[in-house]
Amino acid sequence: MYDWLNRLPKAELHMHLEGSLEPELLFALAQRNGITLPWPDIDSLRAAYDYRDLQEFLDLYYQGAQVLQTEQDFYDLTWAYLQKCAEQNVVHTEPFFDPQTHTDRGVPFEVVINGIGQALADGRRQLGVQSGLILSFLRHLPEEAAMRTFEQALPYRDAFIAVGLDSSEKGFPPRLFERVFARARAEGFPAVAHAGEEGPPEYIWEALDLLKVSRIDHGVRASEDPRLIQHLIDTQMPLTVCPLSNTRLKVFEHMSDHNILELLEQGVMVTVNSDDPSYFGGYVTENFLALHEHAGMTREQAQRLADNSMQARLLK
Ligand code: ADE
Ligand code: ZN
Question: Where in this chain does the record put each Adenosine deaminase domain (predicted)?
């Protein structure tokens, strides 16, 4: 089954480049940049990949991202991910990056976007992986900071295709970012937002009504609101669901409790994605495989999920 799932042509619509930093590369970059890490070796870092919730994961993710300093580092990170895409027949990807994670510790925006952009261009040419980058704002920081980041990004407008919203969800509703999303829309950028991962269905409504998003990232808590589910079906609004992430972050206790297949059968436009593959135990194929092994996903359902991912691309 792994080989069959691996061969399916797929698009990945929800992954954070910083979340694909494998422990081996993290240690290699720390050494290259003369950074002392709080973990003595790779195994002890891996042992820390055990989270009670989203915040515990994010603390580790932001700490790990500190080894990324030069254009070459961002290139190497992105290139490693694109090689995985090629291996897993992910023919199209729309990854996130979080500029504020880097600019707030003094890494110039230009260094980040040039390193990532060069790798994406090489990925298209050398690996045949199509891509469109999504600039994501950190919601635990004020809207003014997101606005400054957007203005900083505008001179590089050809390097990204959309804006997004991520980081700590509870207590940071989408409505706090209405102005910066309006500004991005006025500049011609479509939007996506994380909503309904740990946060309530109201956050999904806000992302739709106020941020006017083209996709919802996660969105699994929509199932608590029947009117919202009907709206998602009627509008065929895509949800970028991340099964391994949701179980590792305790959104669902077990993979067998996950609601993605139920949503699929109800007619919701759901897709399968890896979120932070290095931190959650797998890339796209591993997410499909987990659904097959623990939630009973059939080949026919896998095919529909893969077809949905191609259909829900922002960049056609
Ligand atoms: N940043 C990286 N991964 C994330 C996730 N799963 N939710 C919110 N922000 C994130
Ligand atoms: Zn995410």
Answer: 9-312
Nearest to 194 by CA among 151, 211, 132: 211
By most ligand atoms within 8 Å of CB, the mutation choice from 96, 276, 278, 279 for ligand 1 is 276
- Among the bound ligands, the one closest to the CA of 15: 2
For residue 252, is it left (φ>0), alpha (ψ between -120 and 50) or beta? beta
Name the residue at shortest CA distance from atom 9 of ligand 1. 167
Burial 258-270 (b: 16+ CB within 10 A, else e): bbbbebbeeebbb
Say if residues 19 and 61 touch (Cβ distance below 8 Å). Answer: yes
Question: Are 283 and 274 a contacting pair, CB within 8 Å?
Answer: yes
pLDDT digits (tens, 9 = 90+) for 251-309: 999 999 999 999 999 999 999 999 999 999 999 999 999 999 999 999 999 999 999 99
Domain region containing 299: 1-312
* pTM greater than the 0.90 cutoff: yes
Give the distance (Å) from ligand 1 centre to CA of residue 39.
Answer: 22
| 209 known ligand binder | no
Task: Extract the tokens encoding 76.
Answer: 């190497």
CATH code, domain carrying 161: 3.20.20.140
pLDDT number for residue 109? 98
For 245, phi then psi, to 5°, come to: -60, -50
Considering only CA atoms, which residue is closest to atom 10 of ligand 1? 167
By the 8 A CB rule, do 270 and 295 touch? no
| Closest ligand (CA of 251) | 1
Domain count for the chain, please give it: 1
Q: How far apart are CA 304 and CA 300, in angstroms?
A: 6
94 is annotated as an active-site residue? no
Catalytic residue among 12, 18, 71, 197: 197
